[in-house]
Amino acid sequence: MYERFWKRLLDIVMSSVGIIVAAIPMLVVALIIKIDSPGPVFFRQKRVGKNKKNFMIIKFRSMPVDVPKDIPTHQFKAEKMLSKWQRFMRKSSLDELPQFFCIWIGTMSIVGPRPALWNQDDLVAERDKYGANDIKPGLTGWAQIHGRDEIEIPLKAKYDGEYAAKLKQGGFRAFGFDMRCFFESIIAVLKKDGVVEGGTGKNAE
Predict the structure, then answer these.
(1) 3-class SS at 136?
(2) 11 CB-contact burial (10 Å; exposed 0-12 / middle 13-18 / buried 19+)
């Protein structure tokens, strides 16, 4: 009941508020992107959604247009290619703001496992072990507040599985866990915790 109705209602309300509140900041971000580097404002990419059905995620473009499109963050080895503005967007998660629209239409949720790239077979396989592919991906999640890019794939999938198990419990436990993830994510973003380009915390250069 919680996952099917109340969580979806929360997603609609919170994403609607997010779109309204962030409308002017998003316009400003879009303008700076156009000034900062050549290329489109938005970046669309195929990601893995609920039950492993692919969907198109939308983000602000935070890389030069000549960077390979379908490369996971932990494999990105050219941070020097990024402008100061692009690095700031990625560390502050400003590039994620357009995902409010994905949440509003229902392909994503506010809280859930971060959506894997369509070609991240290792992450998808690990999540299968814990049932974490059976729920909607999220703007933020339990794994995000435990390190974002810093944690290795097996541990990330384990955290995603812990979240999936809590969600399936339903009721106030699931709601309370969602709220915990949401507010702790805000703190993590403000502190810029766990952002690593070109690897996880273990192997980043």
Answers:
(1) coil
(2) buried
DSSP symbols for 12-27: HHHHHHHHHHTHHHHH
d(CA 80, CA 153): 24
User: What are phi and psi for residue 118, nearest 5 degrees?
Assistant: -60, -25
Mean pLDDT, rounded, for 37-43: 95
3-class DSSP assignment, residue 52: helix
For 100-123, write each residue's pLDDT tens digit: 999 999 999 999 999 999 999 999
How far is residue 56's CA from residue 107's CA, in Å, rounded to a whole number? 9
Q: With the C-alpha atoms ordered 44, 123, 112, 201, is the resulting torsion angle positive or negative?
A: negative
pLDDT of 136-161, one tens digit each?
999 999 998 988 667 899 999 999 99
| 13 C-beta neighbours (distance < 10 Å), count | 12
For 192: left if phi > 0, alpha if psi spans -120 to 50, otherwise beta; the answer is: left
Q: Three-state DSSP class for 40? A: coil
b/e string for 28-61 if b means 16 or more Cβ within 10 A?
ebbebbeeebeeeeebeeebbbbeeeebebbbbb
DSSP 47: E
